[in-house]
Structure formats: C-alpha cells, structure tokens
Amino acid sequence: MTCEELKKIAAERADIINVRRIVREQAERLAENTGYRKQVLVCGGTGCTSSRSLKVIEQLEQSFKELGIDDVLIVKTGCFGLCALGPIMIVYPEGAFYSQMTPEHAKTVAERHLVKGGEIVKELLYADTVHKDGSVIPFAEIPFYKHQMRIALRNCGVIAAESIEEAIAAGDYTALSKVLGEMSPDEVIAEIKASGLRGRGGAGFPTGLKWQFTKDAQGDKKYVCCNADEGDPGAFMDRSILEGDPHTVLEAMTIAGYAVGAQEGFIYVRAEYPIAVERLNIAIAQARKLGLLGDNILGSGFSFDIQVRLGAGAFVCGEETALMASIEGKRGEPRPRPPFSAQCGIFKKPTVLNNVETWASISPIILNGAKWFSSIGTEKSAGTKVFALGGKIHNVGLVEVPMGTPLKTIVYDIGGGLPDGKRFKAAQTGGPSGGCIPATHLSVGMDFDNLTAIGSMMGSGGLIVMDEDTCMVDIAKFYLEFTADESCGKCAPCRIGTKRLLDILKKITEGKGEPEDLDKITELAEHMKSSSLCALGQSAPNPILSTMKHFGDEYIKHVYAKKCPAGVCKSLLNYYINPDKCRGCTLCKRNCPANAISGAVKSAHSIDLAKCIKCGQCIEHCKFNAIEKK
Amino acid sequence: MSKVIFEGTEEQREKLLSCIQAHRGEPGALMPVLHEAQNIYGYLPSEVQTAIAEGLDVPLAEVYGVATFYSQFSLAPKGKHAISVCLGTACYVKGSDKVLEAIEKELGISCGECTPDKKFSIDSCRCVGACGLAPVMIIDGEVYGKLSAGDVAGILDKYIKG
Question: pTM for the complete prediction?
Fold first, then answer.
C-alpha cells in the first residue's frame, strides 16, 4: 500500500467517524452524507462483555431484521471508560448515552428510538444525561467526561475495535506515514525527547532517552517491545487501549523500529486478557494484509513485523529483565542491571521497551508536535495520565486527565464521590508497589514527582478509593500477601523479607502485635528497599511504610489497644446486639451457626462472646441494624 | 505432581506433536508450546512435559522449571466447572474474600482444590479487569459480577443441577 491509498481509506470513512466526534447539530448534517441515519455504538470491552453486552448486539441485529431497519450502523467498540454502568450503548448523531442495557432494553430502544421518526427513550438513559427539564445532555458534556482530556484513549469507544479501516479513518497510521515519508530517525527521537514524554508503566523514565540509548547501542539486530503485562491489580488502562485501539500500539512500535533501527517487535501481553489478545492478533493480521506491517512499509523500504507473546500469570514479568527472560522462554526472573536492556535486551540484543499507554501517546506527539504535548500537564510530567478508578467510588472506570490534576477533581468531580455517603479515607495509587494518599492530601496534583514526594507513586495508574470502613493495616497486609506470593524467589531480601513483613502484619491484625514489631517493620523495609534485586522487592514495603506514615495511629491502636478502628480485623472485634434496636425477631438466633445467640421472641437478644466465631451471619440477616462490631 | 491417572487421547497427542513441530527451532518457543499444550489437555501432566522436552530438545528440568514458575500453568487437572474468584484490589475492597469463603463453604473444598467428583475446582485470580463489576467470579468463562456472599448458592445451584 502507498500513502495515497492510506489517505483514500481514511477519506472514505472520515464522516462516519466524525459523526461520533462533533457536536450534535453538525453531526446530524454529517450523518446524511454517510448513508447511515444513525449509528449505535456498543461497548465490547472486558467490563461490558462481562455484563453481557454481546447479547445486546445480538438483540439489536435481530430487532433490526424484524423492524426492517437497514440504515443504522451497529459498531462494537472498545471501552468507553464508565465501566460501572455497563453494558453501555451510545446512539449518534444525538450522543444519547444508554447505560446498564439488557437485551430487553435494546429491543425497546430499537422499536422506539432507532426506527424512522423514533425518539430517545429517556427512561433508559444514564440518569446524569437527562436534564431536570427533561432535555437530553450529550454524554461528552457530563461531569465524568467533561473534566477529561483523552490522548491515549482518544479512539477507545469511538471506533470499531476490530476494523482497521475505522482505525485509519480515525487517524491511525497517519503518524507512521509522516515519519517514513518526511522524518529521519534522529528527528523522530528528537521530537519524542522534546515532548517530555515519560514512561507510563511506573518508573517514569524519559521515553526519548530510552530510544536514543537503543539507537546508539551496537548490535546486528535490535528489538522493539511492548509491555502489556499489566499486573497491578485494579489497573486496566493498557487492556482497554489494546481492546479499543490496538492499531495505535502497532503503529507506534513501527515508528520506534524505524527510529532505533529494529525490524522485529514483541508484544508481551497477559494471558488473562483474552479479548485484548484476540484483538491484537486480528489487528496484526489486518496490518500485514494492508502492508502496514511486513516488508517495505508504505513503499519506504523500511520493514518491520510484530509477534504476540503471552504471559502466564507472573506479576514479576512486568519488570523489564524478567519480561525479556519470559519472551526467551525462560522462568521470568529479573537479573541485575547494568547491562540495561537498551544495550542487552531480548536475546541479548539492544531492545527498547515501553508500556502500552506510552505507545498510545506516540502518534499524537508526532502529528501535533512536541510543543503541543509538553504544554499539557506539569513541567516535569508532560501530557496526560490514564487512571483506573476503582474501589469505593461511584463512577468506576477509566479516566484520562492532564498530569497535575488534583486528586479531588478525579475523586469527586469525575468519580462522583463515594457511595452511601461514606467519608473519603485514602486513595491507593501504584498498586502493590505504591502507597496511599490520605484525605489531607486531596488537593495534591497527580504527577510523578508529587506522588513520590508524599510517599506514594504513580505506578501504572491504578487508583483505588477507600472509605472509613477500610482498615489500613489490613490493606497493607493484603498487598504484602500479593507481593509475598508473587516474589520470584531469586534474591533473598525480597523472598524472605516479604514473608517476614507479612508475618508481622498478620501478628498485628490478629491482636498479637508487640511494640517492637513496628520498629522491626521499619528496619526490614529499609533493608529490602536498598538490597532487593528488582523493583518488586525494592517497592514491596511501600504500602506498609506509607500507611504507617499517614495512618500510624491505626497501627498503634492495633498493637497497644488491640482494637481495629475500622472494624475489619476479625480477631480484634466482638459482636454486640444493641438492645435499643433489637426487636427480638429471632432471625439472627436461627442463622447463627455457633448457637451463640440467645433471647426470647420480641425481647432483645444477646451474643455469648465465648461461643461467637465472628462469621458475620447475624449482621447479614438482621433487618434492624441492631448488631454492632466493636 | 498430580495423582490423577493421565488419560490422553491419540488426537490430543497428534495436536501436541504438530504444535511442537511448528515451533521447533524458534527462539523462545517453550512458553507458546506450554500454553498450547495446556489448551489441549487442560493441564500439564508429566507425560506432556516429557513430550515437550523431547520434542523441543530442552532438558525436562527446564520445562518443569518454567511450568511451575508461572501461576497460569497447572500440573493438576481442573474440575469440570472451573471457578475463579478475583482477589484483585478493587474486588477485595468490595468483599470478594467473603464471596470466596461462601463458595468454599458451599462446595466443602478450599481454594486451589477440586471436589472429589471432579465437578468443581476453585481458584483465586488476580484482577481480570472487570473492576466496574467488583466483586466478580468467573465460572467456565462466564463472569458473575456485583456479587455478595448470599448470591453464591443460587449461582452454584445452576451448575450442580446442570
């Protein structure tokens, strides 16, 4: 294929994509040119397919047949970001945002909205998109989307995820054609350097420098590698990019191949992401067919191809040397650096490795220029960052905001705050390697350096919100269980250190903690940070250190008073029945597996603490909130 | 290693050999072959590991070393219905440990085990990325979200009767 043919594919479908991108009135006019009266976009990402969005598509197809609708386009996209409301369906040109769709709802929408002369079914819309006066707000204007700036996620939820033609029409491969046609490898690297882009995988290393080192390294062969081993629990932006816009990753890797002088690339992706793997394989096959991967790409004489390699459930393989060992077919154990992977990577050849979100930022930088990118975000952290919002928050999902956006904007304006009127206690960032941000730091601007300064870290961008019911010692224990389990065992500080830290935390949560345990934790943590082989061991103590720093009083209450203030640690709690609230309905008594509850009908019951096994069955069955944990 | 007697069919063996053939000589072939072998047999018994070692000409110790390093590779067979409960952070914060407890109680086995009639096995998994539905569990690829411990019995019933 030539650059002209690429432009032709883009031009043919440009209007179809534009209908989804511009405001309503213009979109309506544009829709007339496309041959499709309306377009229905249904999310086919992991979140929505898990809540059965494919059944919604099936139902739409069937209803269209029955109703004789043949001028409405059904598009299966990647993730829209608002996963808590799945399955999500958007109808253009109106931009009507239907949430929590069922096949029955889809049938209703087809019959009442998608037929000729139909009208939006307001009662099925996401409530926030219906104004008090009954008018419909296009979804891009609701708070969840309004505060966002989508660069890496620009095409997710906009294009059909399995169509290379739609990807091209949305702008994919335009940057590649510019690079191959107009830029030298040095110019490409200079542009990336000038943009200030830093790796989105966690460490925040400047991407342009990485490319420069790999280009400068000696080697008969070089590799480009994509880290899609997104292991931080609660982070799913990389998966969503691969599911929603896989071509942007292929394009960026090809650009890097051209810049550093590599002809082969690997994508190392988690096997737990079957949809992402399938879409990657489809995308690679499509790109090869059109000549956008393979020999002599776009007639430039440059050749490049990409293979997919599956991980097999090892968290440590997100570390670069471990990842490369795994691609080589070995146990995924890290090795000491130097030599760095830019000199000695996959099969001992110079290798440039970036994470998915970093790759997704490359082509916008090439197209819009380094200046544009560096003008977004903060001085030392340019551009945007995708956060995976999760935990105790209304709008669970993916959000992309400029670096430096205050945490409270993300939690309250975009995330919609905490459910059930609960109080914000902390946000955990950086997964098992990160730390927590307490309520006193809610105004912190989220960028690499600010987060490190307050004892957390950016990590890959998981952001778990916790409310007053979360015990910080228990959370630290949870992360330590994770790292102790995932430690590869190669170096002693990590293998033994994580286990010992976990033992101490278990002791504390079981009410057996002693004052000197707190000092032991600090000492052990410092040793692990300074002497572990890779980032897994070096950062494993972070969750404990940061919870001790910000929530030290909770540790002290666990150790000295043997109390868990949040009411989580079972051994430190007792169950009581509040006689003022108990109506004597006997439901708790009948459901107690230990026969620990006594009391006559219609008079207050009580729990025999000696018999109680603290299973919580009574709380689940009590209809009057009469049972308290203290 | 598993005590279950290995019962591979001729068809499975042919599939495995052709997969080994396709990857022979390719650098880093071991991981993709182990993935395919597990797809074919459902687990990686010693017989399969031996065939891979011979076919790819790598020491059996290395095959075993790699197979036991990664949590996705299983040396023991799974139940007819494989249950997997997500213990990722988002699910944990929303109480997936209580869901797991309820499943263990319902089936009378612990996480990582298989029921004596080989009908169910329980595993925990790391984040599957469906955090919007937290807490989630997966049975035979079907995702059940927004669970509470009370939902477990009703869902399992479908599979017990089915």
Answer: 0.92
List all residues of chain A from 384 to 403 with a beta carbon under 8 Å from chain B.
388, 390-392, 396-397
Interface contacts A/B by beta carbons within 8 Å: 132
Cis peptide before B59 (omega within 30 of 0): no
Reported ipTM:
0.87
Any CB–CB contact under 8 A between B59 and chain A? no
For A238-291, the pLDDT digits (tens) are 999 999 999 999 999 999 999 999 999 999 999 989 999 999 999 999 999 999
Q: Is A620 within 8 Å of B66 when comparing Cβ atoms?
A: no
Q: Answer yes or no: is pLDDT of B3 > 60.
A: no
**Share of residues in chain A with pLDDT > 90 (%):** 87
Residue B1 banded pLDDT, cuts 50, 70, 90: very low
Taking only residues 308 to 337 of chain A, the set having a beta carbon closer than 8 angstroms to any beta carbon of chain B reads: 309-315, 326-333
Check B131 against A470: CB less than 8 A apart.
no
Rounded alpha-carbon distances, angstroms, from residue A481 to A99, A252, A484, A505, A604: 36, 36, 5, 10, 41
Residue B76, Cβ density class (10 Å: 0-12 exposed, 13-18 middle, ≥19 buried): middle
What are the residue ranges of helices labelled H in chain B? 10-23, 30-41, 46-56, 60-69, 89-93, 96-107, 152-161
> Measured between beta carbons, which residues in chain A are less than 8 angstroms from residue B128?
46, 50, 272
Between A309 and A460, the more confident residue is: A309
- Judge contact between A588 and A627, C-beta under 8 A: yes
> What pLDDT is attached to residue B90?
83
Q: Do B34 and A233 touch (CB under 8 A)?
A: no
